[in-house]
Design goal:
117 residues; mainly alpha; two-stranded antiparallel ribbon; 74% helix
């Protein structure tokens, strides 16, 4: 990313810089919201992991994952977001959740108190 005020050899119009700054502020706020929402999501999935471990349930639930992917693809389409991107994003999150659930299950079997990465 460049921070130059040059655009094709000339100065950038102050109104353009102001609009760019306004849009970037919005992007920064959205990024912060996304991070906080992901943190909340992972708090919930950690609880799911502990419940699964306590009842010796498998860390992964392929049927639920498939339903969630289909659901998210539909939401993405409604929001005018590329469904393939939404699926990749959810698959990344699911893989991380499963990794956490495996660690929680392993900790439950081995008596460890570790609950977070």
């Amino acid at each position: 990313m460049t921070t130059s005020n040059d655009a094709a050899g000339g100065q950038v119009d102050p109104a353009v810089r102001e609009e760019l700054a306004r849009l970037r502020d919005s992007i920064d706020n959205i990024d912060a919201a996304v991070v906080h929402m992901l943190a909340e999501r992972f708090k919930c999935t950690q609880q799911v992991g502990h419940l699964k471990a306590a009842h010796q349930l498998p860390p992964a639930d392929p049927a639920r994952e498939a339903r969630q992917i289909e659901r998210l693809r539909g939401l993405a389409e409604s929001a005018k977001l590329d469904p393939a991107f939404a699926e990749k994003f959810l698959n990344f999150i699911i893989a991380e959740v499963i990794r956490h659930h495996e660690r929680i299950a392993d900790d439950a079997v081995n008596g460890s108190a570790r609950t977070a990465d």
